[in-house]
Structure formats: C-alpha cells, structure tokens
Design a protein that fits this description.
CATH architecture of one domain: Roll
Shape: globular
Number of helices: 18
CATH superfamily of one domain: Dipeptide-binding Protein, Domain 3
Helix content: 25-40%
Structural class: alpha+beta
CATH class of one domain: Alpha Beta
Largest sheet: 4 strands, mixed
Length: 619
C-alpha cells in the first residue's frame, strides 16, 4: 500500500444494505422470494382502519423488526430497521446528514454548530446547541464524552469500527465547558472528510441516566475508566435486548430525539411512538404529527395490501407492483421514487490464481465494461426503476462531485470495441472460445502471466432470489458470449457467496474459485457521506472484495482525506472510474415510496433513507 510521508490511508466500514425494498440489497432478495409465497399481513398489525389525523402510519422493511434502541451497534444488530427506524428517532446523531434530497450536512437539524478547524486542520472545536433531554436536562459535552468513552472502550464490538479510523486517529479529547468539545487528530485532514466521515459517527447519550452498571445501582462516572465503560456498555447492551420491557424501562424514556416508545410488540415489532414534548430540535410548526405507527410485514404483498386498504400513510411498492402507481395516485397518494447515495458494481477477483493475470490487464476490464448494457438493464430488468453507475460517486445525487470521467463515461455499451480490444491484444476465438494466441507482454500480446492457449473463462456466482438480477446477468452473459468470453453463472444464497467473497486464501482455497461475483450487495455512503472510497478500493481494505491493489489509487485516496481541493477529489474519482477496479452496473431505486397526500414535509426524501416525522405536518 502506498502511503504519503505521514498520513495513512484510513479505511472505513462496509456500508452494506440494511434494507432494499426495490433494488439489490440483501433484504430485497428475501422480499422477492416472499413475493412468490402466500402472503398475509403480520398478525400483530392492526386492522386496516385510517389513522387519526395527528397520527402517521409507516411501513417497515419486509421481515425487519426494530429491536435494539442503543445506537452503539454490534454487527449482529446493525441493520436498517434498528438504525433508521428506531435509534435515530430517539437518539439522533450529533450531526444530521440529509438536506432535502442531498446527502449534505443539515446545520439547522444538527445538535451542534458546524465545527471550527484550527491548528492546520488537526484540531476541531464543536459548540453544542441548546438541546434538551426529555427529562428536562440539557444536552452537554458530558453526554458526548460518555459516548466517546463507551466507543473507545468497546470499539472492537462497534459495527462501524476500522483500525486506524475514528476514534483511533484522535490524539486528545477535551471538554472545557458544558457546550464545548475539542478534538485533536493525529494528522492534518480534509475538514470535509473529518465532518462527513468521522464526526458523523457521534451520538450523544444521556450520561446522567445511563452511566450505571445495573438497573438497581446508582448513576456514577463509571465511563471515565476503561473497565467502568465496559461494564456500562455490558449493562446497556443487555437492557437493549429486553424487548418486552421497551415501554417500561426508564432508560428508554430519556431521549433527545423527537420520539418516545409508547407501544411495542416484542413478537412482531409493531411500534407506536409518541412525541417527546421537550424536543428542541428542528420540527414542524402547527398541525405536526404527534403519533407515529410503524407497521411490520412478513411479505411485500401484505404491505401493498395494507396500502390499498388505507391503513398505511407512508409505504412502498415492490418492483413487480410498480404498475399500481396510477391506482394510488387516483386514491390520494403521491408516488415518490427514493434514490439512495449508492453505487452498484460486480466485484472482480484479482486474487484468483488462474484469472488474476487476465484481470490485471486494464484492456480486459475495459472489454468487460464495454459489454455492460446499462440502458437495457435499467428498462428490461428493473422496469425503469434504476439509474446508471459510472464510477465511485453515485450519479443520483452527485452533489457537485461528478467528475469528467463520470460525466462522459468512456465505456458505454459497445461490443465492437470490446472485440477489437481483445483482438488487438492477442486473443482470438478458437473452437468457439476466446483464447490467448499471442502470449507475452508486448503491445500486441495478451499480457504478462497469461499463457498461450489460455481461455477467457471464469465462474460468476450471484445471489439467488432476485428476478431482476437474474434477467440482468443473463443478458450480460449473452453479451460476453458474443465475443467468446465464457462466464459460468451460478445462483447461490447470499450468505454462501459472502463466505467466499473475498481475497484468495491459498491454504484453505477460500475465495480462490470465483472470477466475477455479485452477492446482491451494494455500497451506500452512510455514515461516511464523503465518497472517498478507501473502504472499498484501498489496498487491504476490509470491504475490498476482490483484492484490488493500486499504488496510484492508494495515493489518491490518501490525498482526498487530507486535501480539501475538489480537483484532488476529481483526480481520485477519474482514476477509479476509468481504471475499473469493479464492473459498474445500474443502481436500482431504494424504493418507490407511496405517501398519503394528507402528509406534507415527507418529500423530498432523505438520500440516506432517514425519516424525520417530527418535521411532517398533517393536512
């Protein structure tokens, strides 16, 4: 890995799909299968009666139950319904990152003023706003310190933790007053990267109530020692798993968010939230929502049936029901496609013992990309409910980060160019198979390490259960075959692909067999909202599935972490977009939202799929 003289390439956690109601996430695969099954609404869900005017009913992701309110998540509880539909309603992050439909910091909604940088951008000073907990106490720097102490003590458990990143890159923390926080980092970093990818991960917690090691014990300052912080974490983690006590446990009655749990069904996950009367953050004026119902569903069809029955004010359409858009528009609903800050791609195995020399050749990757017909896949596989991916920055919304290589993508579908590239580099179709006929590393040869007579053939496992994915990849296989490339498609469960979906281990042979793969996964920049890509394209990064390694990429990634220059970011983006560490494919919409016309303020929707019903009004 290439590093600058003093600044490490810091990589972050994988942003995998926690839910995906139309598109490619793991939950979508389950949802597509369930669409084929006999579908009934969850038994816990109330009957289809229209909600009172001050109440909004919201449809949860299929088969996802919010069941962990403590926002310091381990991997076992780190999924969408917990983070976005439970935790952030009660315990919002210090900085809020949705501004309309853009993944930008929302200064008005955040609980602190924008940070002030000094000391060559090594020191950050944060000033808290006047925010109240529901028990009448003000939110102070001690509540942030409490979070930091728990985080540092149990960072190895934290689902967002990556060694070398936050909080490891802090050299000091100071809390000089009730409203001031001062962090000093180990290097001079890009201020936007610090705010969007580091400070974005802070959640104030009510120290005056939660700093205890047992339900019957006193509140103390246990978090000030490592062992004490670990004991507090153990207590809070255990309490978070007592789902039958969510409505009675005094811990969850103290929130700084707009919502308190009023009703909770521990079996099904049906929740009713009531407004926190002491909430002092950004909220609607008159006619605001006072009660939020979250409805669980065991199938996508059950959710659609509830929408048609009138019991859901804010729901969604699965991919095969988009034909109902006209029906819902005529019955008092708005249709609002939701695009998340996401990219989609097929991973390439640069560590496959046989195919690595082939995939190392840029011209091969270019040929593979030229054979991706994104417009066709968008229309035929996804029914128009997707948009193209041209590089490491999502095309929707781009937020001024769309470089020349993505604006003028050089590898649009062109089988002729793919065939010419391969022919010019020593490949020819022999007995129906694309074969290296000119080995060597000269200008007209196949490339270093590619032997004479080698076939351009590889396995391509992808996740089962998604009809759009099957259509997309069968079309891609056909395009590959048209130039002689043999891709053996195999549908496997997502869990099985993920178990084999990383770099080759020569002793166990895990990760050594596949050539291309798609485990029904995608990358959403959340909570790392500045798309610098170290998490997926940096050498040795935990989410670099295929083992891509480039000194040029590593150096450019490092520079995006340290330089605030937009030209520096564009240089990184252009490099990744054109060097093709992965094969870019369309990104489906997160969901097609169906929202009652009695609600205002729900659109534009958050590109991170956050919800903020405290800002909604009922007409």
């Amino acid at each position: 890995m290439t590093k600058s003289a003093s600044v490490p390439v810091v990589v972050g956690p994988r942003r995998t799909a926690r839910a995906f109601r139309v598109g490619r996430g793991v939950a979508a695969a389950v949802g597509m299968v369930l669409l084929l099954a006999s579908c009934t609404q969850s038994a816990s869900t109330p009957s289809s009666t229209k909600s009172p005017s001050s109440t909004v009913s919201f449809a949860l992701p299929v088969n996802q139950i919010p069941n962990y309110p403590f926002p310091l998540d381990s991997a076992a509880v780190y999924y969408f319904a917990n983070t976005n539909d439970l935790q952030q309603l009660m315990y919002p992050p210090l900085y809020w990152f949705s501004q309309g439909s853009a993944p930008l910091v929302n200064a008005k909604a955040s609980f602190a003023n924008l940070p002030v940088f000094s000391n060559d951008n090594k020191t950050v000073t944060i000033t808290l706003k006047h925010i109240m907990w529901s028990n009448g106490r003000p939110l102070t720097s001690r509540d942030v310190e409490f979070w930091m102490n728990l985080l540092i003590a149990e960072k190895s458990i934290w689902a967002d933790y990556v060694p070398g990143a936050f909080p490891d890159n802090l050299v000091s923390e100071q809390y000089p007053s009730a409203t001031k926080i001062v962090f000093t980092f180990n290097h001079s970093y890009n201020p936007k990267w610090i705010l969007y990818n580091e400070l974005s991960q802070i959640y104030p917690l009510p120290q005056s109530v939660w700093d205890r090691t047992s339900a019957s014990g006193p509140v103390g300052n246990y978090d000030l020692t490592t062992s004490g912080a670990q004991a507090v974490y153990s207590f809070l983690n255990a309490q978070s798993q007592k789902v039958a006590e969510f409505t009675t446990n005094p811990l969850w009655k103290v929130v700084d968010g707009a919502w308190l749990i009023k009703t909770y069904n521990p079996t099904t996950g049906y929740i009713v939230f009531s407004r926190n009367a002491a909430f002092s953050g950004l909220q609607a004026g008159s006619d605001r929502v006072t009660t939020l119902e979250e409805f669980p569903y065991t199938s996508a069809q059950a959710e659609v049936d509830a929408l048609r029955g009138g019991s859901i004010d804010y729901g969604y359409l699965p991919a095969n029901d988009v034909g109902l858009e006209g029906y819902f528009r005529s019955h008092g609903y708005a249709i609002a496609p939701l695009t998340s800050f996401t990219i989609s791609y097929i991973a390439i195995n640069f560590t496959n013992p046989t195919m690595a020399p082939v995939f190392d050749q840029l011209y091969v990757r270019q040929a593979l990309q030229y054979l991706v017909n994104q417009p066709l896949y968008i229309q035929e596989a996804w029914g128009g409910n997707a948009y193209p991916t041209y590089g490491p920055v999502p095309t929707r919304p781009s937020e001024g980060l769309f470089s020349s290589a993505e604006q003028h993508f050089p590898y649009n579908y062109n089988p002729g160019k793919a065939k010419s590239l391969l022919s010019a580099h020593g490949w020819a179709v022999v007995n129906g198979a694309l074969t290296c006929v000119h080995s060597g590393s000269g200008s007209g040869d196949c490339g270093a390490g590619i032997r004479q007579g080698m076939l351009l053939a590889f396995s391509f496992p992808y996740a089962s259960g998604s009809a759009p994915m099957a259509t997309e990849f069968e079309a891609y296989k056909s395009a590959l075959s048209s130039v002689g490339i043999d891709a053996t498609l195999t549908q496997l469960p997502t869990s099985q692909i993920l178990a084999n979906d990383f770099t080759c281990n020569s002793s166990t042979q895990v990760g050594c067999s596949w050539g291309l793969t798609d485990p029904n996964d995608f990358w959403t920049y959340d909570p790392d909202y500045f798309p610098t890509g170290g998490e997926i394209f940096g050498t040795g990064a935990g989410s670099n599935e295929g083992g891509y390694s480039s000194q040029g990429a590593d150096a450019l990634i490092t520079q995006t972490h340290t330089s605030p220059s937009l030209s520096t970011f564009f240089a990184y983006e252009n490099y990744i977009a054109t060097q093709l560490p992965v094969i870019w494919i369309p990104t489906p919409y997160y969901q097609i939202s169906v929202i009652s016309n009695t609600i205002s303020g729900a659109v534009p929707q958050s590109p991170i799929a956050f919800i903020y019903p405290e800002r909604w009004q009922v007409k």
